[in-house]
Amino acid sequence: MKLRKRVLAVVLSTAMAAASLVGMSTVTWAAESEKITVGMSCINLTDAGLAAIKEGADKAAEDYNMELIWKACDGDLDTQIDVIRGFIQQGVDAVWIDSVDVDGIISVVDEATDAGVIVLTAGSKVEGKENYNLVYPDLVDAEFAAKAVGEYYKDKEGTVGLIVGSAGNLVSEKRQEGFEKGMEGYPNLRLVTEQGMWDATTSMQKAEDLIRANSDLLHIHVIADGMSYGVYRAVANSGKEITLSSNDGEADALKHLEDGEYLLENLVGNGRLGYWGMVIARRLADGEEMARDQYLPTYKVPGEEIKPIIEAAGLAKGEDGYEYEIVTLEEAKQIGSQEGYVEEFNESFVPTK
Q1: pLDDT tens column, 50-64
Q2: What residues make up the domain containing 128?
Q3: Residue 59, domain member (yes or no)
Q4: Which long-range contacts (CB under 8 A, 24 or more apart) does 110-113 make?
Q5: What pLDDT is stored for residue 241 in this prediction?
Q6: Strand, helix or coil at 46?
Q7: DSSP 326
Q8: CA-to-CA distance for 162 and 60, rounded, in angstroms?
């Protein structure tokens, strides 16, 4: 825990310093490296979260002498497999994959690594032979959110809605599993789950269905900010007192938190995620050795209304001694900013070894 706090302090201090150096490059070690090409295979490019990942990755490409080729598969596994095979045939140096189906993608991941291509699988851990997994603690993060909501409503009976992504996507499944686990301790709350398919409009429709079907609906938790904006519109249009929480820590979601419209956020930072992934790709291409599983720290960002409830319940300390990093709204803004993550993942950054 002390190490994580020290890392957090460094991130915050460097982010503040970087704010006065906008436009000045902090990257030096990659300047003499040869350009590498990375094929970027994603579920779609319309989701707000994926758009933010692209923004961060594109910034890293500028900083680290990389060319990124973006291809979306619109949630179709066969299309994604074809896209990855196309990247292999093009002779790319690396492939970054936001997988539609973690099991269905294994064979083509192995095809790529057998061909000498560096493969990075983002969020969803893929059990290939030699790929690198870019992961974060989805299960325990979602469990924390559920317990926070449970404590907030521990004296009421009603329904809690959960909007997840899509079947077969491990990020979605782990966040669902974690939230369900956290809700087990609150039998006064009934959990109802819908799939938002990583789309704000679909999520809005699913939220409208939840509101119509459950007159006792108290809260909706959404596993990704991009979907949460549609859910927010559905709740606002209903005129009902239904609270919301979400995951990612994007700027728009943090604004909802600041305005009291969300109870809780979990900061991954999609721009931060995209930048980090490309730094890992660059380091691997340059021959650096590191663990197959690379871990990105996340941060809990409670709103003013729920913060004292979280503190009173002692939720910062999870199971088996796991300790959650809880930050203020202002700290979250700094960590998730472009200046913040450029400094966090600079030449002094140490990947998981």
Answers
A1: 889 999 999 999 999
A2: 2-136+270-296+334-344
A3: yes
A4: 111/84, 111/85, 112/84, 112/87, 112/88
A5: 97
A6: coil
A7: B
A8: 33
SS3 82: helix
Number of residues that make up the chain: 353
Which segments of 215-338 are extended strands (E)? Answer: 217-222, 243-245, 264-267, 293-295, 299-302
C-alpha distances (whole Å) from 74 to each of 17, 50, 51, 168, 212 are 40, 12, 14, 14, 29
Q: Are residues 152 and 249 in the same domain?
A: yes
**Closest by Cα among 147, 151, 217 to 181:** 147
Can you list the alpha helix ranges (DSSP code H) found in 66-125? 77-90, 106-114
Position 21 confidence tier, pLDDT thresholds 50, 70, 90? very low
- pTM of structure: 0.82
Q: What is the pLDDT of residue 1?
A: 39
The structure tokens listed for 161 are 């809605």
Averaged pLDDT, 117-127: 93
Q: Point out which residues pair with 181 in neighbouring strands.
A: none
Side-chain-side CA neighbours of residue 291 (13 Å): 11
What are 78-95's pLDDT values in tens digits? 999 999 999 999 999 999
Rg (the chain; Cα; Å): 20
- What pLDDT is stored for residue 230 in this prediction? 98
Tokens of 176: 């669902």
The set of residues, in sequence order, having a beta carbon less than 8 Å from that of 316 and lying 6+ positions away, is: 310, 323, 324, 326
**Claim to verify: residue 241 and residue 260 sit in the same structural domain:** yes
**Does residue 303 belong to any structural domain of this protein?**
no
Burial class (CB in 10 A: 0-12, 13-18, 19+), 259: exposed
Rounded distance, CA 149 to CA 182, Å? 9
The answer as to whether 324 is a domain residue is no
Report pLDDT digits (tens) over 192-223. 999 999 999 999 999 999 999 999 999 999 99
Report the CATH number that the domain containing residue 247 is assigned in CATH. 3.40.50.2300
Residues 92 and 209 in one domain: no
Domain count, the chain: 2
Same domain (yes/no): 66, 158: no
Give pLDDT tens digits for 241-291: 999 999 999 999 999 999 999 999 999 999 999 999 999 999 999 999 999
